[in-house]
From TrEMBL:
Species per Swiss-Prot/TrEMBL record: Brevifollis gellanilyticus
Disordered: annotated span: 319-375
N-terminal signal peptide: 1-23
UniProt xrefs under SUPFAM superfamilies: HCP-like
Protein name in the entry: Secretory immunoglobulin A-binding protein EsiB
Lineage start: Bacteria, Pseudomonadati, Verrucomicrobiota, Verrucomicrobiia, Verrucomicrobiales
Keyword list, A-Z: Signal
Length: 375
C-alpha cells in the first residue's frame, strides 16, 4: 500500500494534532510532557486519547509502547475520531502494535474515508487500486481519489491525474490529467510538477510549451528529490529549443542528482548516468561524456528488473548517443508530435512565478581534441 513510512507518518500526524473546540475550552493546555494528558484520556476525551496514543507509539515525552499506544488510539477511533481511525488503518497495514491485517486496515481507512477525511480516502483508493486487503477495483479507486482530490489532497490529485493520463479506471483524458497535475503542483507536490512538466514538454494534453516545461522542472528541482534534479538536467542538456539549453547548469544539476542518490544510500541508476553524459556533451566535455555513457551501458547490462525488449531498446538509444559523443556532437531530443487541439491551462502562472530557464544562444565550444572522432 502506498503511504508514508510509519515513522514519518506518525510524526506528521503528531504535528497535525489539534484539539477540538470542546477540548480546547474544557481541557487545560497540555504540552509534550503534560502530566494531565492521562487524566483527560481516562475521562474519555477523544483528542487526548488520540494524542496519548501517538506519544506512546512514537515515544514522544514517554517510554515508547506500541501496544499501549494502539489501545489508546483504538479508544479514540471508536469515538469516531477521524485521525485516530486513519492511524488504526496504518497500524494494521504495517503490523505495529497489532498483527498485520490489510483487510482490517481497509476497514479502518473506510470508516474515516466515509466521513470525509481526505488522507483516508486516498488510502482507501490505493487499497482498491492495488487489491490490498480488498478486491482490486480500479474504478472504485478512481471514485475515492476524486473525493480526496476535491479536498485538494495533492497525492490524490496526482494519482487521479495519472489515471486520466493512462486511461486506467476511467476514460482517458490527458487534458483533465493536466488540470489535476496543476492543482497538485501548485501545492508544491514534486511528482505532480514533474509530470506536468513532461506534458508541456511533449505537448500531450496541453499545448507544447518548452518554457513552461522548463519552469516546472526548475521548480521541482528545488526539492530534495534526485529525480527532479535529473529531469531538469536532461531538459537543459537536450531540449529541442536551443535557446533553453545550458550545459554548465545541466552538469551541476546532474551531479547534484547523483550526489543525492549517494547520500541516501541508493544504487546508481543508468538513467542518471546517461543524463550526466548528455550534460557533459552539451558542455563540450566529450571525453568525459564518452566515459559516462559507457558506464551507463554497463549498468544497463546488469539490470535484472527490466525485460529484454526494454533492455534492447534502451541499449540502442544509449549506443546512438555514444556515437554522437565520439563524433563530438551533443544529443538533442527530437521534436515531439504534440496535440495541436489541446487547450492551455489559464490557471498556470508558473512563468510569472518561476521565470524561464534559459542560456546563451551560442553553443559551448568543444573541449575535445578538435576535428574527427573521439575514440
Amino acid at each position: 500500500m502506498i503511504r508514508l513510512s510509519y515513522a514519518a507518518f506518525l510524526a506528521t500526524m503528531l504535528a497535525l494534532c489539534v484539539p477540538s473546540s470542546q477540548a480546547q475550552s474544557q481541557a487545560p493546555k497540555r504540552g509534550p510532557a503534560a502530566a494531565d494528558l492521562d487524566t483527560w484520556a481516562e475521562r474519555g476525551d477523544a483528542d487526548a486519547q488520540f494524542e496519548l496514543g501517538l506519544r506512546y507509539l512514537t515515544g514522544e515525552g514517554m517510554k515508547k509502547d506500541e501496544k499501549v499506544g494502539k489501545e489508546w488510539m483504538e479508544k479514540a477511533a471508536n469515538q469516531k475520531h477521524l485521525r485516530a481511525q486513519f492511524v488504526m488503518g496504518s497500524l494494521y497495514a504495517d503490523g505495529v502494535g497489532v498483527k498485520k491485517d490489510e483487510a482490517k486496515a481497509v476497514e479502518w481507512y473506510r470508516k474515516a474515508a466515509e466521513n470525509g477525511f481526505a488522507p483516508a480516502q486516498f488510502a482507501t483508493a490505493m487499497a482498491y487500486d492495488l487489491g490490498q486487503g480488498i478486491k482490486q477495483d480500479p474504478a472504485k479507486a478512481t471514485e475515492w481519489l476524486e473525493k480526496a482530490a476535491e479536498q485538494n489532497h495533492p497525492q490524490a490529485q496526482t494519482a487521479l491525474a495519472s489515471k486520466y493520463e493512462r486511461g486506467v479506471g476511467t476514460q482517458k483524458n490527458v487534458s483533465k490529467a493536466a488540470l489535476y497535475y496543476l492543482k497538485a503542483a501548485q501545492q508544491d507536490f514534486v511528482q505532480a510538477m514533474s509530470r506536468l512538466a513532461n506534458l508541456y514538454y511533449t505537448g500531450n494534453g496541453v499545448p507544447l510549451d518548452y518554457r513552461r516545461a522548463g519552469a516546472w522542472y526548475q521548480r521541482a528541482a528545488k526539492s530534495e528529490d534526485p529525480w527532479a534534479a535529473n529531469n531538469l538536467a536532461w531538459f537543459l542538456a537536450t531540449c529541442p529549443d536551443e535557446s533553453l539549453q545550458n550545459g554548465e547548469q545541466a552538469v551541476l544539476h546532474a551531479s547534484r542528482a547523483l550526489r543525492m542518490m549517494d547520500e541516501s544510500g541508493e544504487d546508481q541508476r543508468y538513467e542518471m548516468i546517461d543524463t550526466k553524459a548528455a550534460c557533459l556533451a552539451r558542455n563540450g566535455e566529450f571525453l568525459e561524456a564518452i566515459l559516462w555513457q559507457k558506464r551507463s551501458l554497463a549498468l544497463l547490462a546488469e539490470d535484472k528488473d527490466i525485460t529484454e525488449d526494454e533492455r534492447k531498446q534502451l541499449k540502442n538509444e544509449f549506443d546512438g548517443r555514444l556515437k554522437l559523443y565520439q563524433q563530438e556532437s551533443p544529443y538533442n531530443e527530437p521534436e515531439p508530435k504534440s496535440d495541436v487541439e489541446a487547450a492551455p491551462l489559464p490557471q498556470d502562472t508558473i512563468l510569472q512565478d518561476e521565470g524561464i530557464p534559459g542560456s546563451d544562444s551560442k553553443p559551448k565550444k568543444k573541449k575535445g581534441s578538435g576535428k574527427g572522432t573521439v575514440v
